[in-house]
Each structure stands twice: as C-alpha cells, then as structure tokens.
Amino acid sequence: MDRDAVLAAYDQQMRHNARPDGPGARIERSAGVVRQVGAAGGWNGVVWSDLDRDGVDAAIAAQVSYFTSLGRDFEWKLYAHDRPRDLAARLRAAGFTPEPEETLMAARIEDVPTAVVLPEGVRLRPVTDAVGAELVAEVHEQAFGAGRSRIGHRLRAQLAERPDAVVAVVAMAGEVPVSAARMELYQGTGFAGLWGGGTVTGWRGRGIYRALVAHRARIAADCGYRYLQVDASDQSRPILQRLGFRPLTTTTAYIHRAGR
C-alpha cells in the first residue's frame, strides 16, 4: 500500500469533500475550513483546514465565534500533517483542550482477513433495529465507560434514515452482549470506516475484536470499497497492524466548550 497516495486520497475524499456523517447534519465551507454542524446531539467540528500563518488565528476565532453563537461544543480534528505546523499550539492558545492522540490507520480490504472465528458459545447478531442499537450502546458503556444515550440515539437515527450507510453488529454470549462495532460506508469514496469496536471486560483477548473486523471487512468488500480506515487507540493499534492495517498519520481532537 502506497501510504502517501492513500493519505492524499483520504484527505481529498473524506475531509476536503466531507459528507454529513448522519441524518440532519450539514457540511459548510468557509475561508479554508470545512466544518460539520450536527443534528441535535450530533457531532460538531472542523474536519479539514488549509491555513497559512497569516490567517490561521482569524480562522480559529471565526470557528469559535460561529459554534459559540449556536451554543455548541465543537471539535477541531487536527491531523499531524495539517498546516501551519504550529496549529496545535494556536488551538491551545485559543482555549481548546486536546484529547488523547489516535493513529489514523488504513488497509486495502484485499489484505485484511475475512474469516470470522469466534469463541465457543459466541455468535454475531446484525443490528437492524432499535433493540439492536440499545445492545450496541450497552456494550459501548461497559467497554469505554461512556454514556450510552448518544451512541444509541445516533445509531437509531442512522438505521431509520440511512440504513445503507451503516453496518453494526453485536457479539452475543447467549443473551448477553459482550462486544460490538459499527462501520460507516462513505458512499462515493473508496473508504469504509471502522468505529466503536469494543469488548467488555472479561471477554477481551479471545479474538472477538478481530472477528468483528473480519466481519465488517467482508461486507465492505462485497459493497465494492477499496480501503478500511480507523482512528486507532494505543490499545487497538497492535491488533490492527497484525490484521494488515498501516499507520497513515496521527490525529488529535481539540475540544472547545461553548461556555469558555
């Protein structure tokens, strides 16, 4: 895989030409910045920027003013290769707080194993309705310690309004959800995105995460996508590397609170 070529394609298709990530969201372009304004409870933030040193502070101030006027927290999704090189320091000076760094990874789908191997007694349940969305949210809460309402609301909306753009699955041990993941199908691009893969304590290290990657890779291949991409944590990066994923760059979410 040609890292530079894939990163350039990702920047062009997924960032510069970004599409709304869910029902009710919209993409706006203004002065070297591409941003998303989410639906109620959705994600708000800057997905792409191409700024020079002379105009960067004004562009940052404009985004802060805009989202603050809407009463919304927002994220500036910064990639290591974004310009100018001191953009991270300028965001911090403007009141943004960085979250932990993640690694943008990608793989050619043809290089990713698609054989689904699960522990005995575990089965995969496709998510197609509100009941399944609640199972995903339950796993998300247990695996990541985060509130379940946002992910549940988002997934229910996607399944209702854009079911062809999302794939979600839950690994069930009997009637107990033990792992879950979803995949965004970015129509009109060569990329499918892996999101939310998590396994509850007590079921980790048994190959379930790998099985969920394989399950989604097979579906993406059947749908004609060329690449899988994922924002990988330090915990998932080694597993993904063994499955054929390669680092493209790093990414850090810089958060601005509306009340600041």
TrEMBL record:
Residues 122-260 form the N-acetyltransferase domain. The lineage of its organism: Bacteria, Bacillati, Actinomycetota, Actinomycetes, Kitasatosporales. Transmembrane segments: none annotated. This is GNAT family N-acetyltransferase. InterPro entries: Acyl_CoA_acyltransferase, GNAT_dom.
